[in-house]
């Protein structure tokens, strides 16, 4: 069986080490992360805590983005939401999307 976490490891490895979390907001339906490179990402909030939190009660502002993104592999779904939103915040940046071959189309983007 292939390594199920490999896709996340590959995505996280491309996040520069100097990018940090600007802010995290965990809402009822969505978890949002803004990073120091100007990116913003969102993931569905999974408000379940199946194991103790890695960063219990901690403010994540200033945390390296790679560390925050690594939470996507947490067995605590609430933390995994933060990890996914962190990954999204890097790859949703226009520069990151363009590097991966994304081409914006549509009237609203012209």
TrEMBL record:
Which superkingdom, per the lineage? Bacteria
The record places domain DUF4213 at 8-90
**Protein's name in the database:** PF13938 domain protein
Lineage per the UniProt record: Bacteria, Bacillati, Actinomycetota, Actinomycetes, Propionibacteriales
